Amino acid sequence: MPVKVFYTSVSGSREIKKKQQKIWDVLSAKKVEFEAIDISQDSNKDEMKEMANDATVPPQICNGNEYCGNYEAFLEAIENEQLDAFLKL
């Protein structure tokens, strides 16, 4: 089951867009299969909130139905060389 990255295509925030791109770049470089899910569609936002304990700010990362964490937790996992464990691979 691929990793899910909840993102938004309609954010005016350059910071959010940079975070989303960083996640995609790292996952692609490590050849981790992932699905990018745009929360600008209401049903996807509801799914992200349910999976991520009511978190409303993307990006949020899940593996199947298991919540992995947000961008800050993703960066911490990279720094600690624990990305596979973070992504529950």
From TrEMBL:
InterPro entries, per the entry: Glut_rich_SH3-bd (IPR006993), SH3BGR (IPR051033), Thioredoxin-like_sf (IPR036249)
Any one Pfam family match given in the protein's UniProt record, by short name: SH3BGR
One cellular component term from this protein's GO annotations in UniProt: cytoplasm
Domain of life of the native organism: Eukaryota
Family stated for the protein in its record: Belongs to the SH3BGR family.
Protein name: SH3 domain-binding glutamic acid-rich-like protein
